[in-house]
Structure prediction request, 266 residues.
Amino acid sequence: MILADSASADDPSFLAVGSANASGASASRLYESIMLTDNDETIEEARAALIDWKTRAGSPLTIKQLEELIKQYKADDNSNEEPEGDPEADDDDDPEETETPWSRATSLYIAPIGLAGDPSEEALHKQEELAEQYDCAEEEDQYWFDIKMFWWDQDTDPTSASEGTYPEGSHVIVINGTRNGQMRATSKLTEPGRVVHSFTEDLGRLTRTYYYIHTKLSDEEHTLADLKAALASVNDQVDYDRQYLRRRQIDAMLDLWTDIEYSEDH
Prediction:
């Protein structure tokens, strides 16, 4: 969303809202659309929304936090610069040393998902867009990261029970149950991931909320039975309505995936 205030009487305010962004795929490969308007009421609604988002975002990031984000997303990497030293020496480098830093979760949700129905074209488009944004290549021998998607279908009736919600930035382990939402001991788990985006579609009687998690892939497969055993080892149990905050419980779950390494030691 771009909100441009009026610079003069000859240049009125306008609002642009759409799917296009500054990525190469958006410019050359994907079909995008935007809405362009100078309607005063619509512009004021957009301005109010931006102010609300800024207010809810809280305090600005500190210099220390920005430095950590720069390291995590390699924002200071200038791909146009020639590497120093012998270029052939890079062939002998351990590829793990060049991987994106992967921070250990400090809190964790468990999401039981049934995945009734099929995702919309918009949802699939967003998954592809996020995969490019987070450098999740299709070639498994190049990157070990992925953007995984799951969704909730929610009855619009306010008296209906609400499903779980996972804020952006939170970490989630998804349990892939049956299509009707049953969780079995053999239900497979996805690798722990961080929620990087969500949005809600109106399906008439239902609304569907999509969540996208950035995961580091593993060669290992684990089930709900493994998760229950891990939590039982620290005198706890699986709870779908809870955010796990204690380090012992979080470590017990994360350590199921022995081939996922983290950039921080706790």
Observations:
- The first helix runs from residue 24 to 28.
- Helices lie at 24-28, 40-57, 63-73, 121-133, 224-232, 247-254.
- The beta strands are 2-4, 14-18, 34-37, 108-113, 145-155, 171-176, 188-189, 193-202, 206-216, 243-244.
